[in-house]
Amino acid sequence: MTLTPRPPSPARARRRVTGLLAVSAGAAVLGACLVSCGNAPTPTAKAAAPVAAHHQAHHQGHVAGGGTQPSATVKLPRRSMKKLKAGAGCPKARLQIDADELKQTACQTKRGRYTIVTFAADKGKRDWLDYAQAYGGTYLVGDRWTVVAEPALLEGLRKKVGGKIETGARHH
Question: Residue span of the signal peptide, if any (predicted)?
C-alpha cells in the first residue's frame, strides 16, 4: 500500500498564504517604522541583505547596553495587544495586520511613534526579531510580543508592561 500525501484543505492553504502575506506586510510596516524612528537601512543596506544575514548570527541576541540576551530560562511577561496599546498611550489604535501568526498596529502619540506586534508563538516572534534586528533598531520584547520605538519611549513602556530591551546590529 502506497501512501500519497493529500493536499492541504482550502482553509489551511488560505491560512498559510495569509500568514506569508502577514509576515511580508509586517516587514514592510517595520521598514516604515524604522524610517520614522531614524533607524532605517540605507538603499545599499537593502541590496546588502545577504551580508546582513551573515552578520545576523554575530549580532543575534544583543540587548541594550551591549550585553547579550539572557538565557532561555528567564520568564518574559505575556501581554495582550490591548494592554500593550494602553501602555503606549494609544488604546484605540486599529490593527494593520490581523493574521493567524501575528497582529500588528502602529500609533503616533505626543511622545513618539510605536509599532506593536503580538505573535501566536514565541518562535514566530524570535524569527521576526532575528530578521528585523539585522537592520538595527531598538525593541521591547516580551513573551509573544515586541514593540518598536525610540529607546526612551521603550524604557517608559517597559516600566508599565515589563519585558527586556534589545538592540539590533547598527554597524558594518
Answer: 1-27
Task: For residue 158, give its domain range.
Answer: 10-167
11 φ/ψ angles, rounded to the nearest 5 degrees: -65, -45
Q: Is 2 a domain residue?
A: no
Q: Is the pLDDT assigned to residue 45 strictly greater than 50?
A: no
Is the CB of residue 19 less than 8 Å from the CB of residue 132?
no
Cα(105)–Cα(122) distance, rounded to whole angstroms?
A: 18
Q: Is residue 4 part of a domain?
A: no
pTM above 0.70, yes or no: no
Contact 136, 147 (CB under 8 A): no
Q: What distance in Å separates the CA atoms of residue 54 and residue 75, rounded to the nearest whole number?
A: 29
Q: pLDDT at position 75, please?
A: 85
